[in-house]
């Protein structure tokens, strides 16, 4: 019969293996693995640059994240700093973004397929939230939302649809977000559904959204 100590050891090993299996990015096996953007070798991530050629600039970017950005037509601007901007982020499983919101601007419903996000409001007020998955009732597609003020923090779990909206018609807002991947990715729901190339059949979307096809055609025209 297995002793209690051996059972605990087995449980700990299983927990460690499970954690590695669900991690967004693979854990590093050395101090760093600066991405070699010029390597012809294709891997999940980037090949490591020769460590003898690594210098401090591989871990640095003059990103000017303290400066305001011009917002887009929905009233936001996301300045993402990931492995494509700082090669030293390769295998480290983290990135950061500054998000600017115009008055009544929003970062529209979207997902990050490879990252959990933790957002901190630096200026202004934000109405934020995420929607749960198609899990069993009563938590199916449940909206969890909150109004955030300066200094508040909110977490968006990996893969779930979420948004941020500035409800103030007169003042902009600013937030900083950290994401648990060197390359979190982003899928903006409206763009993906109504702006795919080639477009999704209006028969499919009309059935899915239970609307007339001319409504779908109108939305796809933008």
From TrEMBL:
Keywords: Apoplast, Cell wall, Cytoplasm, Disulfide bond, Manganese, Metal-binding, Oxidoreductase, Secreted, Signal
Binding site for oxalate: 107, 112, 117
Disulfide bonding pattern of the chain: 33-48
Any Gene Ontology CC annotation: cytoplasm
Name of the protein: Germin-like protein
Gene3D superfamilies for this protein: Jelly Rolls
Signal peptide coordinates: 1-23
GO molecular function: manganese ion binding; oxalate oxidase activity
Species per Swiss-Prot/TrEMBL record: Aegilops tauschii subsp. strangulata (Goatgrass)
Positions of the Cupin type-1 domain: 63-217
Binding site for Mn(2+): 110, 112, 117, 162
Catalytic activity: oxalate + O2 + 2 H(+) = H2O2 + 2 CO2
Pfam families documented for this protein: Cupin_1 (PF00190)
Listed CDD domains: cupin_OxOx
Protein family according to the UniProt entry: Belongs to the germin family.
């Amino acid at each position: 019969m297995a002793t209690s100590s051996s059972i605990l050891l087995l449980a700990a090993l299983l927990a460690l293996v499970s954690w590695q299996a669900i991690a967004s990015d693979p854990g590093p096996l050395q101090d760093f693995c600066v991405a070699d953007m010029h390597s012809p070798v294709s891997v999940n991530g980037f090949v490591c640059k020769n460590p003898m050629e690594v210098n401090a600039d591989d871990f640095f970017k003059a990103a000017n994240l303290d400066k305001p950005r011009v917002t887009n037509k929905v009233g936001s601007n996301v300045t993402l700093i990931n492995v494509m901007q700082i090669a030293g982020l390769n295998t480290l499983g983290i990135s950061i973004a500054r998000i600017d919101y115009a008055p009544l601007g929003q970062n529209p419903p979207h997902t990050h397929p490879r990252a959990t996000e933790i957002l901190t409001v630096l200026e202004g007020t934000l109405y934020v939230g995420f929607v749960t998955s198609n899990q069993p009732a009563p938590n199916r597609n449940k909206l969890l939302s909150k109004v955030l003020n300066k200094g508040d923090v909110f977490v968006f779990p990996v893969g779930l649809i979420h948004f941020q909206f500035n409800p103030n018609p007169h003042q902009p807002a600013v937030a900083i977000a950290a994401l648990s991947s060197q390359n979190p990715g982003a899928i903006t729901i409206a763009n993906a559904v109504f702006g795919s190339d080639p477009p999704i059949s209006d028969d499919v979307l009309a059935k899915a959204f239970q609307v007339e096809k001319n409504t779908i055609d109108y939305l796809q025209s933008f």
